[in-house]
Design a protein that fits this description.
Strand order of the largest sheet of chain B: 2-3-10-5-7-6
Strand content of chain B: 15-25%
Distance between the termini of chain A: 18 Å
Number of helices of chain A: 7
CATH superfamily of chain A: P-loop containing nucleotide triphosphate hydrolases
Oligomer: heterodimer
CATH architecture of chain A: 3-Layer(aba) Sandwich
Strand order of the largest sheet of chain A: 6-7-8-3-9-10
Shape of chain B: elongated
CATH class of chain A: Alpha Beta
Radius of gyration of chain B: 33 Å
Largest sheet of chain A: 6 strands, mixed
Distance between the termini of chain B: 39 Å
Largest interface: A-B, 28 and 26 residues
Helix content of chain B: 55-70%
Shape of chain A: globular
Helix content of chain A: 25-40%
Chain lengths: 247, 419
């Protein structure tokens, strides 16, 4: 475990001013049927997230944090409750409309990277732009920029199996950024990385936050959560605590 | 515009993915394509055979002439009340003369000329050589106006020779070849069932009629010479040429009327003769042809169906294998129809490759058959190629639609959890 950086009175962790409301969920409930049992994954969660926030969602397994993340990422719809994303009601959207939001507004980063193994890293990063109908030349340019932004300018033609774990996650982050999403949703982004590489990735997230991105990280590790400026804690399908974090 | 652009990009992405999949799983792709290849080869070869049979039928029927009516005792085709026909009087050679007089005296007749024909099986000898099973036909010089066969040597007998009953004959191509290999038969004298006859011409090669008998195995002599040699107990056949083959039916009516006069039939009496035409034969053959075609295509279609099942199976496996990838793509923004198109394109790609390879293989087999057995009815044509390609694509779509649909409906949350 890496010891936290010593508090430096001369260094104030920047907290950027909050922008407009991005995520507004109210009374959100999610029920699953597992055989004969009904699982209450979320039991009426209310949450507001603004642009320029850097938030960590924490909680033990079974607390509902994965379910909440899927909900926020428009991968799943609530059983009850409302979800407004950038002012639009998501709960009543069609499958195609949800896909469109995921494409343009949300950048996913997964624990297992989830890259296409038979494509170059550049093509992996281009993928969201293909689904957005962006022409080839512009696609290539934007993908290249995204890769430069994550420090992989010299790895564009490599396939994922030719990259290290940390590099793969960077490719995934570049992919998440390429469409200029409203939020970046990261699910245990360092879960498959060693601690040193994990720390590098979290520093990258710090840089991305400084650059103006809104970031939500789901994690069960305190050290990871410490990079965020706000942390909510889930327990048994409800938000237990929601506090701002100073360095 | 943007929707079209997106479709185009997604389509090319699908092709790219399909190609990468095929290359990554070469063995699997080969085995899957093999099913389609075999199916396409079978269906294509069956198509060429059907085509060939069709052409063969049509060529044979053309030998009968589409502007000729045949007046005979018996109709072509099955009869129910045999006795009615058996009791009919024979067609007589003199009927032809009477008919021609009626035709000449009819203004604007749709009939051109009536030619009598009698025939018998015989043997033809020349020197030490002898051919059996030859059909000797006696007819008039007007036969030249009816037949569309040319002489490759010499000529048909003329009216003077015909009326005089001179013992001359025109040989069919195979008869001349058999008795006079490599040299001319003109002015030679052959013995036809004991009767000498001088060869004055040889017919061009015609080929077989429906594979039943060959026009090349006959010889033609003046009818008067025929009856002089063998009498006229046997009935004759009248071949009547019509002036305009588009008016065949009306000509048939006119001929019926004329024949009834010739035979002195009373009104109300049923015809005591039959008028046959190529069309009747065709009408008989068409259902047979169609039945053969359907049966053949159905059976070979089954083999293609088996190939299609293979494609469907493999595509299901592919979907299962890439569940997590499908989840990722959906998370990045792929819509259901994008995923559907992706897997449909994969299935169609394999089918198309199999179809092309199958087409090439079928062509090779076709060439082999054609060179080895030239008379076997097979025929390859461009529209067969297009049709087979179309069949491949349709097979791909039909086989791929179920797995592709399953893939498109995957819940992204569940798919992303799949290991």
């Amino acid at each position: 475990m890496i010891p936290p950086p010593p508090p430096d009175p001369l260094h104030q962790r920047s907290i950027r001013p909050r922008g407009p409301l991005v995520i507004d969920i109210e009374g959100v409930t999610k029920l699953y049927r597992m055989g004969a049992e009904t699982v209450h994954a979320l039991r009426g969660v209310a949450l507001q997230v603004h642009r320029n926030e850097y938030m960590a969602i924490m909680g033990p397994s079974g607390s509902g944090k994965s379910t909440l993340m899927n909900m926020l990422g428009c991968l799943d719809t609530p059983t009850a409750g409302h979800y407004q994303f950038n002012g639009k009601d998501v709960s009543s959207m069609t499958d195609d409309e949800l896909a469109s939001i995921r494409n343009r507004e949300i950048g996913f980063v997964f624990q297992t990277f989830n890259l296409l193994p038979r494509s170059s890293s550049l093509h992996n990063v281009e993928l969201p732009l293909i689904y957005a109908g962006v022409p080839a030349a512009e696609r290539r340019l934007r993908a290249q920029n995204a890769m430069v932004n994550v420090g992989l300018a010299d790895r564009m033609m490599h396939k994922p199996n030719e990259l290290s774990g940390g590099q793969r996650q960077r490719v995934a982050i570049a992919r998440a950024l390429v469409n200029n999403p409203s939020i970046i949703l990261a699910d245990e982004p360092t879960g498959n990385l060693d601690s040193k590489t994990g720390e590098e990735i979290m520093q990258l997230f710090d840089v991305l936050y400084e650059q103006g991105n809104t970031i939500i990280v789901v994690t069960h590790e305190e050290d990871i959560a410490r990079h965020a400026r706000r942390a909510i804690r889930l327990h048994d399908g409800l938000i237990e605590s929601d506090r701002m974090m100073d360095s | 515009m943007s929707a079209i652009a997106r479709f185009v990009y997604e389509f090319f992405e699908s092709i790219r993915i399909a190609w990468a999949q095929i290359r990554a799983n070469k063995m699997r792709s080969v085995l899957t394509a093999l099913g389609v290849i075999i199916g396409i080869v079978a269906v294509t070869l069956m198509g060429t055979a059907i085509r060939g049979i069709d052409t063969g039928f049509n060529n044979s029927l053309a030998m009968l002439g589409d502007d000729v009516l045949y007046v005979e005792k018996w109709p072509w085709g099955p009869v129910e009340d045999w006795w009615n026909y058996a009791n009919r009087p024979q067609i007589k050679i003199t009927d032809a003369e009477k008919l021609n007089r009626i035709i000449e005296s009819t203004p604007n007749s749709m009939l051109a000329v009536a030619v009598p024909r009698v025939g018998r099986g015989c043997s033809v000898k020349f020197g030490d050589g002898r051919v059996d099973g030859i059909f000797a036909m006696g007819t008039t010089a007007d036969y030249a106006r009816i037949t569309n066969v040319d002489c490759v040597e010499g000529r048909l007998f003329n009216e003077i020779e015909s009326n005089g009953g001179r013992a001359v004959c025109v040989l069919g191509y195979d008869v001349a070849e058999a008795l006079f290999p490599g040299r001319s038969s003109l002015d030679q004298t052959v013995i036809v069932d004991g009767h000498p006859s001088t060869v004055i011409g040889v017919f061009a090669k015609q080929g077989e009629f429906l594979g039943l008998f060959s026009f090349d195995n006959q010889l033609v002599m003046p009818i008067t010479a025929f009856t002089k040699a063998w009498g006229s107990r046997r009935g004759a056949q009248l071949q009547v040429k019509v002036t305009d083959k588009r008016l065949l039916l009306q000509a048939k009516d006119e001929l019926t009327g004329a024949m009834r006069r010739v035979r002195g039939q009373l009104p109300g009496e049923r015809d005591n003769f039959s008028i046959n035409e190529q069309q009747a034969f065709k009408a008989q053959l068409d259902p047979v042809k169609t039945a053969i075609a359907f049966a053949g295509l159905f059976i070979t279609g089954l083999s293609l169906f088996v190939g299609a099942i293979g494609i469907m199976n493999i595509t299901f496996v592919s979907v299962k294998e890439r569940t997590k990838e499908i989840g990722t793509r959906k998370a990045i923004g792929a819509r259901r129809r994008t995923i559907l198109m992706q897997f449909l394109v994969e299935a169609v790609s394999i089918c198309l490759i199999g179809g092309i390879v199958g087409m090439v293989a079928a062509y090779a087999v076709f060439l082999g058959i054609h060179f080895q057995w030239p008379s076997f009815p097979v025929e390859f044509s461009p529209d067969l190629v297009v049709l087979s390609m179309l069949v491949s694509v349709v097979t791909g779509i039909v086989s791929g639609i179920a797995p592709a649909f399953t893939a498109s409906r995957l819940d992204p949350v569940v798919a992303l959890r799949y290991e």
